[in-house]
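agent> Task received from the user: take the single chain below, predict its 3D structure, and emit C-alpha coordinates. No templates, no multimer pairing.
agent> Plan: (1) validate residues, (2) run structure prediction, (3) serialize to C-alpha coordinates, (4) report one or two observations.
agent> Step 1 OK, no nonstandard residues flagged.
tool_call: predict_structure(input=
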Amino acid sequence: MQKNDEIYELIHSMDASEKRYFKRYSSIHSDRKDSISIQIFDALDKMKSYSDEKLKEYFKDQKTAQHIHVSKNYLLKNILRSLRNYHQSFSKESELKDTLVEIELLSQKKQYNLAFKILTKAYKTAYQYELFLQILEILQWISRIQFYEPNLKLEDFLTSENELVNILEVFTWDAKLENYLYQLIRFFENPIGKQPVSFEFPNENHPIYQFISTKSLVLFIKALFVQIQGNTIESFDYLKQAEKLYLDRQELIAEKPTRYFLLLAIQIDTAIQLKYFPEALQTILNAKAIYDSLKTHKIKAIKDDFDANFVYKLLLIYNSMGKFDQSIQYFESFDSKNPDYDLSFPNHILLNIWLQTAYAYFGAGNYQKVLDFLELIRGRAFDNTDYHQPFIFWLNLLSVVKLQQKDAITYKLELFYRWFASKIGHDKFILFLDSLKPWFLEQNKEVLLNLSHNQPHFIELQNFDISLWIKSELQNQTMLNLA
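)
tool_result: status=success, residues=483
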Protein backbone atom coordinates (compact mmCIF):
# COMPACT_ATOMS: atom_id res chain seq x y z
CA MET A 1 0.00 0.00 0.00
CA GLN A 2 1.36 3.42 -0.96
CA LYS A 3 2.09 5.75 1.90
CA ASN A 4 0.00 8.93 1.92
CA ASP A 5 1.66 12.08 0.68
CA GLU A 6 2.27 14.69 3.44
CA ILE A 7 0.81 17.56 1.40
CA TYR A 8 -2.24 15.41 0.56
CA GLU A 9 -2.76 14.75 4.29
CA LEU A 10 -2.33 18.43 5.15
CA ILE A 11 -4.98 19.44 2.58
CA HIS A 12 -7.42 16.83 3.86
CA SER A 13 -6.90 18.08 7.44
CA MET A 14 -8.03 21.60 6.44
CA ASP A 15 -11.64 22.63 6.97
CA ALA A 16 -13.82 24.28 4.32
CA SER A 17 -13.12 27.86 5.47
CA GLU A 18 -9.34 27.27 5.47
CA LYS A 19 -9.53 25.91 1.92
CA ARG A 20 -11.57 28.90 0.74
CA TYR A 21 -9.09 31.28 2.34
CA PHE A 22 -6.16 29.49 0.66
CA LYS A 23 -7.73 30.04 -2.77
CA ARG A 24 -8.44 33.71 -2.04
CA TYR A 25 -4.93 34.18 -0.70
CA SER A 26 -3.39 32.51 -3.76
CA SER A 27 -5.48 34.59 -6.18
CA ILE A 28 -4.42 37.85 -4.49
CA HIS A 29 -0.75 36.88 -4.72
CA SER A 30 -1.29 35.42 -8.16
CA ASP A 31 1.36 34.49 -10.69
CA ARG A 32 1.82 31.45 -12.92
CA LYS A 33 3.21 29.38 -10.02
CA ASP A 34 0.16 30.17 -7.91
CA SER A 35 -2.18 29.11 -10.70
CA ILE A 36 -0.41 25.75 -10.97
CA SER A 37 -0.37 25.29 -7.19
CA ILE A 38 -4.16 25.84 -7.04
CA GLN A 39 -4.62 23.17 -9.73
CA ILE A 40 -2.48 20.72 -7.75
CA PHE A 41 -4.38 21.68 -4.59
CA ASP A 42 -7.72 20.90 -6.29
CA ALA A 43 -6.42 17.61 -7.69
CA LEU A 44 -5.18 16.45 -4.27
CA ASP A 45 -8.35 17.66 -2.57
CA LYS A 46 -10.53 15.55 -4.88
CA MET A 47 -8.54 12.33 -4.32
CA LYS A 48 -10.12 9.75 -2.01
CA SER A 49 -6.65 8.26 -1.46
CA TYR A 50 -3.24 9.48 -2.60
CA SER A 51 -1.64 8.20 -5.80
CA ASP A 52 1.42 9.56 -7.62
CA GLU A 53 0.15 8.03 -10.85
CA LYS A 54 -3.25 9.72 -10.61
CA LEU A 55 -1.63 13.08 -9.93
CA LYS A 56 0.71 12.78 -12.92
CA GLU A 57 -2.19 11.62 -15.09
CA TYR A 58 -4.11 14.76 -14.10
CA PHE A 59 -1.31 16.93 -15.58
CA LYS A 60 -0.19 14.64 -18.39
CA ASP A 61 -0.77 17.28 -21.12
CA GLN A 62 1.07 20.04 -19.25
CA LYS A 63 4.73 20.78 -18.59
CA THR A 64 3.86 20.71 -14.88
CA ALA A 65 3.94 16.91 -14.94
CA GLN A 66 7.71 16.98 -15.49
CA HIS A 67 8.34 19.10 -12.39
CA ILE A 68 5.47 18.03 -10.17
CA HIS A 69 7.64 17.75 -7.03
CA VAL A 70 8.87 21.36 -7.44
CA SER A 71 5.31 22.62 -7.84
CA LYS A 72 4.20 20.66 -4.78
CA ASN A 73 6.95 22.25 -2.67
CA TYR A 74 5.76 25.68 -3.79
CA LEU A 75 2.19 24.64 -2.96
CA LEU A 76 3.23 23.59 0.56
CA LYS A 77 4.83 26.99 1.23
CA ASN A 78 1.69 28.73 -0.02
CA ILE A 79 -0.61 26.59 2.15
CA LEU A 80 1.47 27.29 5.27
CA ARG A 81 1.52 31.04 4.54
CA SER A 82 -2.25 31.12 4.04
CA LEU A 83 -2.86 29.11 7.23
CA ARG A 84 -0.60 31.46 9.19
CA ASN A 85 -2.45 34.51 7.86
CA TYR A 86 -5.86 32.91 8.40
CA HIS A 87 -5.23 31.98 12.02
CA GLN A 88 -3.27 35.01 13.20
CA SER A 89 -6.49 36.94 13.95
CA PHE A 90 -7.80 34.07 16.11
CA SER A 91 -4.80 33.70 18.42
CA LYS A 92 -3.06 36.30 20.55
CA GLU A 93 0.11 34.24 20.44
CA SER A 94 0.10 34.38 16.61
CA GLU A 95 -0.58 38.11 16.67
CA LEU A 96 2.35 38.70 18.99
CA LYS A 97 4.68 36.63 16.83
CA ASP A 98 3.79 38.83 13.85
CA THR A 99 4.25 41.94 16.01
CA LEU A 100 7.80 40.86 16.88
CA VAL A 101 8.58 40.47 13.17
CA GLU A 102 7.33 44.04 12.66
CA ILE A 103 9.51 45.22 15.58
CA GLU A 104 12.56 43.71 13.91
CA LEU A 105 11.78 45.59 10.69
CA LEU A 106 11.26 48.88 12.57
CA SER A 107 14.57 48.39 14.39
CA GLN A 108 16.36 47.87 11.09
CA LYS A 109 14.86 51.21 9.97
CA LYS A 110 15.96 52.79 13.28
CA GLN A 111 12.34 53.69 14.15
CA TYR A 112 12.87 53.06 17.85
CA ASN A 113 10.16 55.32 19.27
CA LEU A 114 7.46 53.67 17.16
CA ALA A 115 8.83 50.22 17.99
CA PHE A 116 8.72 51.09 21.70
CA LYS A 117 5.05 52.17 21.49
CA ILE A 118 4.10 48.93 19.73
CA LEU A 119 6.08 46.86 22.24
CA THR A 120 4.33 48.60 25.16
CA LYS A 121 0.94 47.53 23.80
CA ALA A 122 2.21 44.03 22.95
CA TYR A 123 3.58 43.61 26.47
CA LYS A 124 0.18 44.34 28.01
CA THR A 125 -1.45 41.79 25.69
CA ALA A 126 1.16 39.11 26.42
CA TYR A 127 0.81 39.75 30.16
CA GLN A 128 -3.01 39.59 30.02
CA TYR A 129 -2.94 36.24 28.22
CA GLU A 130 -0.02 34.91 30.30
CA LEU A 131 2.14 34.13 27.26
CA PHE A 132 5.43 33.89 29.11
CA LEU A 133 7.71 33.20 26.16
CA GLN A 134 6.35 36.22 24.29
CA ILE A 135 6.75 38.38 27.42
CA LEU A 136 10.43 37.44 27.59
CA GLU A 137 10.94 38.12 23.89
CA ILE A 138 9.29 41.56 24.20
CA LEU A 139 11.48 42.45 27.20
CA GLN A 140 14.53 41.33 25.25
CA TRP A 141 13.60 43.65 22.37
CA ILE A 142 13.06 46.55 24.77
CA SER A 143 16.58 46.03 26.14
CA ARG A 144 18.02 46.10 22.62
CA ILE A 145 16.12 49.26 21.69
CA GLN A 146 17.22 50.96 24.92
CA PHE A 147 20.84 50.40 23.88
CA TYR A 148 20.28 52.54 20.76
CA GLU A 149 17.82 54.98 22.34
CA PRO A 150 18.88 55.58 25.99
CA ASN A 151 15.96 57.94 26.59
CA LEU A 152 13.60 54.95 26.46
CA LYS A 153 14.10 53.57 29.93
CA LEU A 154 13.46 49.90 30.68
CA GLU A 155 12.56 50.90 34.24
CA ASP A 156 9.74 53.10 32.92
CA PHE A 157 8.33 50.13 31.07
CA LEU A 158 8.26 47.56 33.92
CA THR A 159 6.03 47.84 36.99
CA SER A 160 8.91 46.74 39.27
CA GLU A 161 12.66 46.28 38.93
CA ASN A 162 12.34 42.53 39.62
CA GLU A 163 9.70 41.93 36.96
CA LEU A 164 12.10 40.56 34.34
CA VAL A 165 13.59 38.11 36.86
CA ASN A 166 10.11 37.08 38.02
CA ILE A 167 8.86 36.41 34.49
CA LEU A 168 11.93 34.32 33.74
CA GLU A 169 11.29 32.28 36.90
CA VAL A 170 7.60 31.83 36.06
CA PHE A 171 8.47 30.72 32.51
CA THR A 172 10.90 28.10 33.90
CA TRP A 173 8.44 26.89 36.52
CA ASP A 174 5.61 26.67 33.99
CA ALA A 175 7.69 24.25 31.90
CA LYS A 176 8.71 22.19 34.97
CA LEU A 177 5.13 21.97 36.25
CA GLU A 178 3.73 20.94 32.86
CA ASN A 179 6.38 18.23 32.50
CA TYR A 180 5.49 16.82 35.94
CA LEU A 181 1.76 17.05 35.14
CA TYR A 182 2.16 14.77 32.11
CA GLN A 183 4.24 12.32 34.15
CA LEU A 184 1.34 12.08 36.61
CA ILE A 185 -1.24 11.69 33.84
CA ARG A 186 0.73 8.84 32.25
CA PHE A 187 0.84 7.06 35.62
CA PHE A 188 -2.81 7.97 36.31
CA GLU A 189 -3.93 6.34 33.03
CA ASN A 190 -1.63 3.31 33.33
CA PRO A 191 -0.73 2.76 37.01
CA ILE A 192 2.18 0.35 36.70
CA GLY A 193 5.70 0.64 38.01
CA LYS A 194 6.99 3.00 40.66
CA GLN A 195 4.56 5.62 41.97
CA PRO A 196 5.55 9.23 41.13
CA VAL A 197 7.45 11.06 43.87
CA SER A 198 5.95 14.12 45.54
CA PHE A 199 6.67 17.51 43.95
CA GLU A 200 8.24 20.41 45.87
CA PHE A 201 6.17 23.52 45.15
CA PRO A 202 7.53 27.05 45.74
CA ASN A 203 6.30 28.97 48.79
CA GLU A 204 3.05 30.94 48.55
CA ASN A 205 4.86 34.24 47.85
CA HIS A 206 6.45 32.93 44.66
CA PRO A 207 5.49 34.82 41.43
CA ILE A 208 3.91 31.70 39.87
CA TYR A 209 0.87 32.31 42.11
CA GLN A 210 0.29 35.69 40.47
CA PHE A 211 -0.75 33.99 37.22
CA ILE A 212 -3.91 31.95 36.65
CA SER A 213 -2.29 29.42 34.29
CA THR A 214 0.52 28.44 36.68
CA LYS A 215 -1.63 28.65 39.83
CA SER A 216 -4.25 26.34 38.25
CA LEU A 217 -1.45 24.02 37.12
CA VAL A 218 -0.30 23.64 40.74
CA LEU A 219 -3.87 22.75 41.78
CA PHE A 220 -4.19 20.28 38.89
CA ILE A 221 -0.97 18.50 39.93
CA LYS A 222 -2.09 18.34 43.57
CA ALA A 223 -5.43 16.87 42.45
CA LEU A 224 -3.78 14.08 40.48
CA PHE A 225 -1.24 13.31 43.19
CA VAL A 226 -3.78 12.96 46.02
CA GLN A 227 -6.06 10.90 43.76
CA ILE A 228 -3.22 8.47 43.02
CA GLN A 229 -2.86 8.18 46.80
CA GLY A 230 -6.58 7.34 47.06
CA ASN A 231 -8.09 10.64 48.25
CA THR A 232 -10.71 11.18 45.56
CA ILE A 233 -12.80 13.79 47.39
CA GLU A 234 -9.81 16.06 48.06
CA SER A 235 -8.74 15.59 44.43
CA PHE A 236 -12.17 16.72 43.21
CA ASP A 237 -11.97 19.86 45.39
CA TYR A 238 -8.60 20.79 43.86
CA LEU A 239 -9.96 20.24 40.34
CA LYS A 240 -12.97 22.47 41.01
CA GLN A 241 -10.69 25.24 42.32
CA ALA A 242 -8.52 25.02 39.19
CA GLU A 243 -11.59 25.12 36.92
CA LYS A 244 -12.93 28.24 38.71
CA LEU A 245 -9.66 30.09 38.10
CA TYR A 246 -10.03 29.50 34.35
CA LEU A 247 -13.72 30.41 34.30
CA ASP A 248 -12.89 33.76 35.94
CA ARG A 249 -10.48 34.47 33.04
CA GLN A 250 -11.96 32.64 30.03
CA GLU A 251 -9.68 34.40 27.54
CA LEU A 252 -6.86 32.17 28.83
CA ILE A 253 -8.70 29.04 27.71
CA ALA A 254 -8.31 30.01 24.05
CA GLU A 255 -4.52 30.25 24.46
CA LYS A 256 -4.10 27.08 26.56
CA PRO A 257 -7.02 24.84 25.51
CA THR A 258 -5.26 21.47 25.85
CA ARG A 259 -4.43 22.06 29.49
CA TYR A 260 -7.93 23.31 30.32
CA PHE A 261 -9.89 20.52 28.61
CA LEU A 262 -7.57 17.90 30.06
CA LEU A 263 -8.38 19.31 33.50
CA LEU A 264 -12.11 18.98 32.77
CA ALA A 265 -11.72 15.41 31.48
CA ILE A 266 -10.08 14.34 34.77
CA GLN A 267 -12.70 16.30 36.73
CA ILE A 268 -15.56 14.53 34.93
CA ASP A 269 -13.98 11.11 35.54
CA THR A 270 -13.52 11.96 39.21
CA ALA A 271 -17.13 13.16 39.54
CA ILE A 272 -18.36 9.88 38.02
CA GLN A 273 -16.15 7.92 40.39
CA LEU A 274 -17.73 9.80 43.32
CA LYS A 275 -21.19 9.31 41.77
CA TYR A 276 -21.66 13.09 41.38
CA PHE A 277 -23.52 12.42 38.14
CA PRO A 278 -25.52 15.68 37.76
CA GLU A 279 -22.33 17.68 38.34
CA ALA A 280 -20.42 15.57 35.80
CA LEU A 281 -23.19 16.14 33.25
CA GLN A 282 -23.23 19.89 33.82
CA THR A 283 -19.42 20.08 33.55
CA ILE A 284 -19.28 18.31 30.20
CA LEU A 285 -22.13 20.40 28.74
CA ASN A 286 -20.38 23.60 29.91
CA ALA A 287 -17.12 22.36 28.37
CA LYS A 288 -18.88 21.79 25.04
CA ALA A 289 -20.37 25.31 25.11
CA ILE A 290 -16.96 26.87 25.79
CA TYR A 291 -15.29 24.71 23.12
CA ASP A 292 -17.88 25.73 20.49
CA SER A 293 -17.37 29.42 21.31
CA LEU A 294 -13.62 29.32 20.65
CA LYS A 295 -12.20 29.80 17.16
CA THR A 296 -8.40 29.56 17.49
CA HIS A 297 -6.23 27.18 15.48
CA LYS A 298 -5.23 25.60 18.81
CA ILE A 299 -8.85 24.55 19.30
CA LYS A 300 -9.03 23.07 15.78
CA ALA A 301 -5.86 21.09 16.54
CA ILE A 302 -7.67 19.16 19.30
CA LYS A 303 -11.01 18.85 17.46
CA ASP A 304 -11.08 15.07 16.86
CA ASP A 305 -9.88 14.25 20.39
CA PHE A 306 -12.37 16.65 21.99
CA ASP A 307 -15.33 15.49 19.88
CA ALA A 308 -14.54 11.82 20.54
CA ASN A 309 -14.09 12.34 24.28
CA PHE A 310 -17.29 14.39 24.48
CA VAL A 311 -19.34 11.57 22.94
CA TYR A 312 -17.67 8.95 25.14
CA LYS A 313 -18.01 10.90 28.40
CA LEU A 314 -21.62 11.86 27.73
CA LEU A 315 -22.58 8.23 27.07
CA LEU A 316 -20.66 7.18 30.18
CA ILE A 317 -22.52 9.73 32.34
CA TYR A 318 -25.96 8.83 30.96
CA ASN A 319 -25.25 5.12 31.51
CA SER A 320 -23.94 5.72 35.03
CA MET A 321 -27.18 7.58 35.83
CA GLY A 322 -29.24 4.69 34.42
CA LYS A 323 -30.56 6.89 31.58
CA PHE A 324 -30.10 4.22 28.91
CA ASP A 325 -32.84 5.48 26.58
CA GLN A 326 -31.28 8.96 26.65
CA SER A 327 -27.85 7.48 25.96
CA ILE A 328 -29.18 5.52 22.97
CA GLN A 329 -31.10 8.52 21.66
CA TYR A 330 -27.99 10.69 21.83
CA PHE A 331 -25.75 8.13 20.10
CA GLU A 332 -28.23 7.42 17.31
CA SER A 333 -28.65 11.16 16.67
CA PHE A 334 -24.88 11.65 16.65
CA ASP A 335 -24.36 8.64 14.36
CA SER A 336 -26.90 9.91 11.81
CA LYS A 337 -25.30 13.39 11.69
CA ASN A 338 -21.69 12.13 11.61
CA PRO A 339 -21.60 8.97 9.46
CA ASP A 340 -17.79 9.03 9.08
CA TYR A 341 -16.85 9.63 12.71
CA ASP A 342 -15.10 6.26 12.92
CA LEU A 343 -12.55 7.45 10.33
CA SER A 344 -11.35 10.43 12.38
CA PHE A 345 -11.83 9.43 16.04
CA PRO A 346 -8.81 7.93 17.87
CA ASN A 347 -9.14 4.15 17.97
CA HIS A 348 -9.02 3.70 21.76
CA ILE A 349 -11.77 6.32 22.30
CA LEU A 350 -13.85 4.83 19.48
CA LEU A 351 -13.77 1.42 21.19
CA ASN A 352 -14.90 3.07 24.42
CA ILE A 353 -17.79 4.81 22.60
CA TRP A 354 -18.99 1.50 21.15
CA LEU A 355 -18.60 -0.20 24.50
CA GLN A 356 -20.71 2.47 26.23
CA THR A 357 -23.31 2.17 23.46
CA ALA A 358 -23.39 -1.59 24.01
CA TYR A 359 -23.84 -0.97 27.75
CA ALA A 360 -26.77 1.35 26.98
CA TYR A 361 -28.50 -1.24 24.80
CA PHE A 362 -27.86 -3.87 27.45
CA GLY A 363 -29.42 -1.63 30.11
CA ALA A 364 -32.41 -1.04 27.81
CA GLY A 365 -32.78 -4.79 27.19
CA ASN A 366 -31.95 -4.75 23.44
CA TYR A 367 -29.52 -7.70 23.39
CA GLN A 368 -29.31 -7.97 19.61
CA LYS A 369 -27.93 -4.44 19.46
CA VAL A 370 -25.42 -5.38 22.14
CA LEU A 371 -24.19 -8.19 19.90
CA ASP A 372 -24.01 -5.80 16.94
CA PHE A 373 -21.70 -3.45 18.80
CA LEU A 374 -19.60 -6.33 20.10
CA GLU A 375 -19.10 -7.25 16.46
CA LEU A 376 -17.95 -3.70 15.71
CA ILE A 377 -15.46 -3.88 18.56
CA ARG A 378 -14.15 -7.25 17.37
CA GLY A 379 -13.87 -6.01 13.79
CA ARG A 380 -11.94 -2.92 14.84
CA ALA A 381 -9.53 -5.07 16.82
CA PHE A 382 -8.24 -6.61 13.57
CA ASP A 383 -6.49 -3.30 12.88
CA ASN A 384 -5.12 -3.02 16.41
CA THR A 385 -1.92 -4.82 17.42
CA ASP A 386 -2.59 -4.09 21.11
CA TYR A 387 -4.97 -6.97 21.91
CA HIS A 388 -5.45 -6.18 25.60
CA GLN A 389 -8.15 -3.51 25.30
CA PRO A 390 -10.35 -5.09 22.58
CA PHE A 391 -10.02 -8.45 24.32
CA ILE A 392 -11.24 -6.99 27.62
CA PHE A 393 -14.12 -5.18 25.94
CA TRP A 394 -15.13 -8.32 24.13
CA LEU A 395 -15.09 -10.66 27.14
CA ASN A 396 -16.72 -8.02 29.31
CA LEU A 397 -20.02 -8.04 27.45
CA LEU A 398 -19.77 -11.58 26.21
CA SER A 399 -20.25 -12.73 29.78
CA VAL A 400 -23.49 -10.85 30.41
CA VAL A 401 -25.09 -11.37 27.02
CA LYS A 402 -24.37 -15.09 27.44
CA LEU A 403 -26.85 -15.09 30.30
CA GLN A 404 -29.57 -13.87 27.92
CA GLN A 405 -28.75 -15.58 24.61
CA LYS A 406 -26.69 -18.72 25.19
CA ASP A 407 -26.68 -19.98 21.58
CA ALA A 408 -25.84 -16.62 20.06
CA ILE A 409 -23.07 -15.91 22.52
CA THR A 410 -21.45 -19.32 22.07
CA TYR A 411 -21.33 -18.69 18.33
CA LYS A 412 -19.86 -15.22 18.86
CA LEU A 413 -17.28 -16.61 21.29
CA GLU A 414 -16.18 -19.18 18.71
CA LEU A 415 -15.72 -16.46 16.09
CA PHE A 416 -13.71 -14.36 18.49
CA TYR A 417 -11.62 -17.28 19.73
CA ARG A 418 -10.78 -18.29 16.16
CA TRP A 419 -9.28 -14.83 15.60
CA PHE A 420 -7.59 -14.40 18.97
CA ALA A 421 -6.11 -17.90 19.15
CA SER A 422 -4.64 -17.43 15.67
CA LYS A 423 -2.84 -14.35 17.00
CA ILE A 424 -1.34 -15.67 20.24
CA GLY A 425 -2.07 -19.43 20.32
CA HIS A 426 -4.36 -21.61 22.45
CA ASP A 427 -2.03 -22.02 25.47
CA LYS A 428 -1.17 -18.35 25.67
CA PHE A 429 -4.88 -17.59 25.44
CA ILE A 430 -5.52 -19.57 28.65
CA LEU A 431 -2.59 -17.90 30.45
CA PHE A 432 -3.79 -14.50 29.30
CA LEU A 433 -7.27 -15.23 30.59
CA ASP A 434 -5.90 -16.28 33.99
CA SER A 435 -3.83 -13.10 34.29
CA LEU A 436 -6.88 -10.95 33.58
CA LYS A 437 -9.29 -12.69 35.91
CA PRO A 438 -8.78 -10.67 39.17
CA TRP A 439 -8.90 -7.30 37.41
CA PHE A 440 -11.86 -8.37 35.29
CA LEU A 441 -13.94 -9.63 38.22
CA GLU A 442 -13.20 -6.63 40.45
CA GLN A 443 -13.70 -3.78 38.00
CA ASN A 444 -15.54 -4.74 34.83
CA LYS A 445 -18.15 -6.85 36.57
CA GLU A 446 -18.93 -3.97 38.95
CA VAL A 447 -19.81 -1.80 35.95
CA LEU A 448 -22.06 -4.47 34.53
CA LEU A 449 -23.77 -5.12 37.86
CA ASN A 450 -24.70 -1.45 38.03
CA LEU A 451 -26.56 -1.85 34.75
CA SER A 452 -28.73 -4.69 36.01
CA HIS A 453 -31.95 -3.67 37.75
CA ASN A 454 -33.45 -7.16 37.60
CA GLN A 455 -32.80 -8.92 40.94
CA PRO A 456 -32.66 -12.57 39.71
CA HIS A 457 -30.42 -11.53 36.82
CA PHE A 458 -28.24 -9.50 39.23
CA ILE A 459 -27.70 -12.52 41.48
CA GLU A 460 -26.94 -14.81 38.53
CA LEU A 461 -24.42 -12.33 37.12
CA GLN A 462 -22.84 -11.75 40.53
CA ASN A 463 -22.12 -15.48 40.88
CA PHE A 464 -21.08 -15.93 37.24
CA ASP A 465 -17.38 -16.79 36.69
CA ILE A 466 -16.51 -15.92 33.10
CA SER A 467 -13.06 -17.51 33.34
CA LEU A 468 -14.40 -20.93 34.34
CA TRP A 469 -17.20 -20.70 31.76
CA ILE A 470 -14.83 -19.99 28.86
CA LYS A 471 -12.48 -22.78 29.94
CA SER A 472 -15.38 -25.24 30.04
CA GLU A 473 -16.47 -24.12 26.55
CA LEU A 474 -12.95 -24.77 25.30
CA GLN A 475 -13.17 -28.40 26.35
CA ASN A 476 -15.83 -29.28 23.74
CA GLN A 477 -14.78 -30.62 20.35
CA THR A 478 -15.84 -27.55 18.39
CA MET A 479 -13.63 -25.23 20.38
CA LEU A 480 -10.69 -27.65 20.28
CA ASN A 481 -10.98 -27.82 16.50
CA LEU A 482 -10.96 -24.05 16.33
CA ALA A 483 -7.75 -23.97 18.37
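agent> Step 4: summary for the user.
Residues 163-189 form the longest helix (27 residues).
agent> Done.
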